[in-house]
Structures are given as C-alpha cells and as structure tokens.
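Protocol step 6 of 9: fold each sequence in the batch and record its structure tokens directly after the sequence line. For illustration, a two-sequence batch is reproduced in full.

Sequence one:
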Amino acid sequence: MVVSIARHLEGYLAVRFPFDQRVVDAIRIVPGRRWSAGDKAWLVPDRKEAGERLLQSLYDTGLFNLPDSRGSGSADSFDEKEINAFLSRLAVDGKVSSSTQNQALAALLFLYRQVLGVPVGELGQVIRAKKPIRLPVVMSRDEVRAVLAKLESDKYLAAKLMYGTGLRLMECLMLRVQDIDFERSEILVRNGKGAKDRVTMLPETLKEPLKEQLARVKGIHEKDLAEGWGAVPMPDALDRKYPNGATEWPWQYVFPQERRWTNAQTGRQGRHHMDESLMQRAVHTAVLKAGISKHVSCHTFRHSFATHLIESGYDIRTVQELLGHSDVKTTMIYTHVLNRGPSGVRSPVDGL
C-alpha cells in the first residue's frame, strides 16, 4: 500500500491512500486531523508533533514494510555524506527556504532514528538555506476596523482578541475559562511558543463581549453534561492527576468547536477548541470583502498589535514582554515604523 503525504493548505498535510479501515483508524489517533470531502483526503496539522504521531501510527499498523534495499545497497547505505549532499542540494539547486530545509532534515532524522533504527552521526558542513529577513505585514487601524467589520460572532471576537492582546492564533483558540482574569484585567497564555507561559493584558472593551461568550459556552457545556459528555482534552498528563478536570467548567475552552468529536475506539464524545482552519478561512474571506490588497493572515493581527503600540509611544521592553519574545532583537523588527525612511523624503517630482 502506498500512502501519499503532501503539503496542502496553510498549516496542513494532505494524506491520501487506497481505502483501508486500519489506516483510517491510525490517522484518527492524530490530534487535529479531519476529513476533507472536497479534497478527498485526510488533513493533518503540519506540525512536528502531529507529523511524528502520524508516521508512528501508520508504522504501528504493520501494513508498511521497510525496504531491504535501495538498489545500491542496504537501507542504511544512505549515509551522513548523502544526507548532507541532499540537504545542500535543496538549498543550492532547489532554492528552498530555511524552514523547508529544516523540515526535511527533521523528517530524515526521524525516519532513520525512530523507524529504521539506524543511527545518524555527524552531518558535517551542510550548506544552509539563507533565512530571509522580512518586514512583517501590518494593517493600519482603518484596515483592522474594515476586516473586523466583515467577521461575525465568535470569529469576530477571536480576531479582535488577537489584535487587542497580540495573541497568536493557537494561543487564542486554546484559551480556557480559567485563563481569563477579569478582576486583574489579565490573560494567562499557557504553553506559548517555546513552551513558555506569559501574561498579557485584557482590554476593557473586550470584557463584556468575553463575558457574553463565556455565558454562551457555559450553556453549551451544561447541555453536554446533561447528555453525559462535557469533557475537553487536558494538557500533558493532567487527565491522570485530575480525573474529573476534563468536565469541570474552568478547563473548558473559550472558543469551543460547534460539534462534539467522537473517539472512534471508545465511543466517548468531547469538545475541542475551534479548528484553526475555520478562523483562517474566515479572516481570509473578510480581507477579500474589505478590499484589502495586502497579504493578511491571522498572524497579521499580532504584527499590527505590536506596531501600533510602538507607534503610540510604548517602550520596546513592554512590547517584548506582551509578545513573549525571549530576545528583544525579535521585537526590534517592529521599530521599522519609527524610521520613516522613504515616507519622510519629498520626491523631486512633487516639486515640478
């Protein structure tokens, strides 16, 4: 059997194969997976953890035999020098980005170390793809208002929260009830990028909309409990430490998915957070409707948040802390707005 895994939409891998229930069951183990009828493929989050879980789950089915040879020798004949040459060729001939080259390296290392059981030694001097330095796409305040005006209900609130707090998309969607402190006007971001917790502000104008959202979510949660469900996935191993925590109100998601998920093996039902692709599509559609020609994504709200704070005179260290950057150099990219550059120069053609 051949399974095809290819990059699909932003943030997803498309998995296609001749129908086999055992393969379907293996894919369903991967968190965040979903079936796309239009693409006739399973979509799996394009993240390292999900990719490793997918490969391991497929291998555990026993349907896929590792090749004994590759024509020129055994499976381990693809040695460090050849891996080095392959990665260097990606950068020189393929002109791929640094992130694509790093992903290829991670996939090869996982294949050899975890699947084939072949140790990989020192790779030597790999020609690295140059990581480009790009200025972030930033919306003006009017453009932010125009995009938000085209969003509705919980997607409008989530987008406004990302712009108002600098949250990343997944940080926003993974917020739980207990992470919002209305009294202290704070939001606790758990397990952010780099597995770090941080605290950011809770805008005054978002307090009432968030309270209304939580009231709506509580009604959904109580209905789920009445029907015998009401559980959410717990982080790490907390489901063992707090056996009843998954059904308790503080652990519920602020932005839950509309329909409950069902565990194909146990039949248990629960509710995950809103799928990130729904938010991404909603923002993309809103940008088109607003007539904005910039390449705007959910992450653009975070860029706009930081840029507008610096424009308003807030110091770079404060912005660094709110964004959760370890190094102030990362935050410094937003100071491009302080250097007016070409926009501060009057062209001679304007004097004709």
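Sequence two, same batch, same settings:
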Amino acid sequence: MIHNTVGKPVQGDDFFDRKREVAEIWSRLETDDILLLAPRRVGKTSLMYRLNDTAGEQNMQAIYVSVADATTELAFAKKLLDALADHPSKEKVLQALKKSPIAKALSRIRKVGLFSSVELELQDAAAVDWPAIGEAIIGALSATGFRWLLMVDELPIFVLALLRVDQTAGRARIS
C-alpha cells in the first residue's frame, strides 16, 4: 500500500513513478559524477534513498549521509564515518583506512570508537589537512575493490555553515 506523504522523504513502496529518472542516473554514474540541484521538496532525498536501496542491483556499495547540521569539517567527517560504521563492508574500509595517510590524523584523535559509534575529538582541528583526510577516505573506499556510490545530502547547507563561521577563513576552506 502506498502512503501519500507530503513534505518528507519517502522510501520503499511509497517511492513510485521515477523509474526513468533512476535509470538515467544509474546510466550517468557509469562515467560521471552527479550533482542534484533543484528547489526544496521536489524529491532529491527520496531519489537518493532509492539509489541507496538499489545500489546492489548495480553492483555498487552505497553510502548516504546528510550533512545539514554539520558546521565544521570535523562534524562532516564524523557524519561520514558514522555512515561508514553502519555499512556491511565497514571492516574492509577500516583495514584500508589503517594503511592510509588518515591513520596519522586518526592518531591525533583523543577519543575514537571507530566503526562503532564514532567519537571524534581533535586537539587542534584547525591543523588537520581536511582535503588529505577526504582523499584518504575515498582511497580507502576504492581499496576495498568495490564500486561505491557516495551520496552527500544537503552539501550546500554545510558549505554555507562554513562561510557563516568566518567569511575569510570560510572562503579559503571551501575553495
């Protein structure tokens, strides 16, 4: 039974009549990255939920993360690692992370229950090379041998939050 839902993302049987769009996205993902830009409440999140649910049919592993409430790079990294912690392939990702440049940054973390309720607390988050951390995470995903679909929802909200903290430093951090 389909539930008529207005204003919040839908999943499962409540997501319907977007087969053409889903097929087009899977086709484009064979060769390209995709940025979904549209006004609020048109179904971007619901579409990402469907891609997440059907990634296995495309021989892909999928990670969905919403960063709407992240206001720092540390919060973004925590959300991404939390999403990875819930993924069935987490052990392969963890092994690859241990062999990557991120291991050095992780050694600077005071508390970490990596891949079981992630707790990140850095002594000096400003000194962390965030692009290198991101590259290490992407490298660790790649090292698993799987094809990955990484879906980051509400990224523009996160970028605006970085800008709000400090216009000058924020611009440097997002460029």
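Proceed to step 7 once all outputs are recorded. Observation for sequence two: The longest helix spans residues 130-143.
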